[in-house]
Amino acid sequence: MNVTRERAAAVLAGNWLGASTVPSRALYPHQWSWDSAFIALGLRHLSPGHARRELLTLFEAQWPDGRVPHIVFDPQTPPEAYFPGPSFWQAGRTSGLVQPPVHARAVLAVHEAEPDHAFLAALYPKLVAWHDHLRTGRDAGGRGLVAIVHPWESGMDNSPAWDEPLSRVPLATGFVRRDLAHGDPGDRPSDDDYGRYVRLAAAYRDSGYRDFGDFVVEDPGFNALLADAELALAEIAEELGLPSGAHREAAARLEKALQETLWEDGFFFARDVHTGSLIREHTCAGLLPLMLPDLAVAPALLTTATGPRFRLGRVHGVPSYDLTAPGFDPARYWRGPSWSNVGWLVRQGLLHHGEFALAAQLRDDLVETAAQTGFAEYADPLTGAGHGARSFSWTAALTVDLLSEGK
């Protein structure tokens, strides 16, 4: 076995709790929604049974309304290990927010690694309910796009795209951050950001997890991943001998709405639903529509991706923020560093649109950077230096997946 693959497999084994995988033993000691999908992509090559268990465990915590919560809390972990914990959310063993819907793609990939129609049959109706919840309960703008109600739902917590809508949110006080005990403050969101996150989450909780609040944003990354998930769901339906047309139509509607609503000047921008205005910050979320094979504007988006703002192919990974922006920070969370999951997603888009040489270059860089940084949570796109947690599960898992390609 390749040495890097062995090391990545050891990370995943070390972070396995018995029914799911923590992103990081110290910093993130519970199960996170989109983390588990990416983790399953790697686990399928090492132990398909563990990959199935990862996803089944997550969906066992699905809410009656169809939402898949962004955290499933481990009852064996002390409550003080993470904030905000279960007592804050008042939702039993989960949080009340969501994360990007990458799960159908992971379920399909796990099945392809070791076909298991019972696994597909168990998760297909749960995935349908999950997507239905997003489409019916989150179309706040009335344009056919899903809105997020908290930066945590994007998976890209302190993205500069959220600065403007967050500015309307007062700061919460009287809480203790647990993340700073396990991470360099220079790598993490600021205290002001965190104060607004807590205030937003508390308001949403107090509404019974129903009301749109001060932060309501149509995120191009979230919606592109939902469109891709509908395409995956169509393939799952076909595997089960079920009609797939409705899923393909849903994907086409989302793609059309993305281009009509969020596309401008060669890029996909987030839209503030409260003001109706685009948030003109170039973040990596605006590159994720490359995941859609029929994207008409893909050539123009690729021009932006390889241009000075992201310099794809000339830096490490995919920068999370515009390299030319005054606020670019190569070390601070989603304000500049490259993340392996975004690199993995963008690489899929490159393959869809025939950019095979660039995709191969990105694959090699993602693997090398992961190995050299001890599978860091994220990395400086200019130097490749690691930041955040080490032995990070999705970095290790996606390294396994990239190294297993073609085997």
Automatic annotation (TrEMBL):
Pfam families from the UniProt entry: MGH1-like_GH (PF22422)
Keywords from UniProt, A to Z, are:
Glycosidase, Hydrolase
InterPro entries registered for this protein in UniProt: 6-hairpin_glycosidase_sf, 6hp_glycosidase-like_sf, Glycoside_hydrolase_63, MGH1-like_GH
This protein's source sits in the domain of life called Bacteria
Q: Where is the Mannosylglycerate hydrolase MGH1-like glycoside hydrolase domain?
A: 28-395
Keyword Hydrolase in annotation:
yes
Q: Which family does it belong to?
A: Belongs to the glycosyl hydrolase 63 family.
Question: What's the protein called, per UniProt?
Answer: Mannosylglycerate hydrolase MGH1-like glycoside hydrolase domain-containing protein
This protein's species is Amycolatopsis bullii
Give the classification, highest ranks: Bacteria, Bacillati, Actinomycetota, Actinomycetes, Pseudonocardiales
